[in-house]
Amino acid sequence: MTHPSCLFKSWCVFLLVCAAVTSAGDTAPVDVPVARHYRDGAERFRLFTYEGEVFTAGETADGGTVLVNSDGLWTVRRFYDDAARLVKRELWSLGETVAATTLTTTERFFYVAAAATPAYSRLLSETTFTETEYDAAGRRTRVRVARIEPHGEIDMDELLPARQVPESSRSWRYTDDGAVLEQVYEQYATDMRTPLFVRRETYDYHAATDVPPDYTCYEDGELRIRTLYQTKDDYETTVYFDGGYTVAETYARGKKVSDAIMLQGRIIQHHDYAE
Hints:
The protein is mainly beta. The chain has one helix spanning 7-23; strands spanning 35-39, 45-50, 53-59, 65-70, 74-80, 86-93, 102-110, 120-124, 128-134, 140-147, 165-174, 180-188, 195-204, 214-219, 222-229, 235-240, 245-252, 255-263, 266-272. β4 and β5 (74-80) form a beta hairpin. It is elongated, with a radius of gyration of 25 Å. The protein starts with 6 loop residues before the first helix and ends with a strand.
C-alpha cells in the first residue's frame, strides 16, 4: 500500500490529467465528471473542484505545502515538508457555523533523517491516542491504541504514557516480498496494563503463487483455526473448541464435500455431501 506521503505527487498528476480532460472542450461528455481548476497570477494551482469536492493548495511558513480537500461534511488538511513528505494530517468535521466546526483528529508523521517513509506516526482524537510504527518500506509493523481523558487543546507531545490507558495493539511481520507473515492483536482490560486477550494469526505461503497461504489462528495461545490448501479450491479447515471438540470441513473444487465432528481426536459424527 502506498504511504500517504506519496499522495502529494499523485495529487499533482491528477490535477494535470483532469485539466487536460476539461480543457479539451467547453462541454464535457455526459459520462465524464466535470472538473474545474483555477490558478493564481503566477499560474500556480489554487483551487480545484471535482464531483462536488473542493481541493485547494497553499504554502506553509516553513516552505512546505498544505493541501486541503472538502466534501461539505468533512475537510482534510495535509501538510507536506519541502521534500514532499507528509508531516501532518488533520480531519475536520464541518458544522453549519464556524463555531460548530471541530478538529476531529490530528496525525503527525516522524521521519529519521532523509528517509522517504516515516518511522512512526501519532494520531490524537478527543478520547484516543494511536501510535503507529512503520518499516523501511512504509508498512505498518505495530499500532497501539490507548484511551485518554477528554483533553481539549492538549498537544500530543505532552501526552505522557502515564496519562494513557492501553486499549489494544496490533503488530505485523512480513515476508521479504511484503506479504503478511504474522499478525497479532492484543486487547487490554479496563485500567490494566497486561493483555486480556491475544489473537495470533500466521500465514504459510506455498511455492505456487496461485495457492492461498495456509492459515493458522491462535487465541490466548490455544490453536483455534487451521486451514490447509492444496489449491485455491481444494482445502481443509479445522476449528478447535474448548473441551477437546473439533470440526473439520473438506472442500473440493470450491464445494464442501465432507465434515466431521471429533472429540479428543475421535470421530463422533461425519457427513459426506453429494457433488
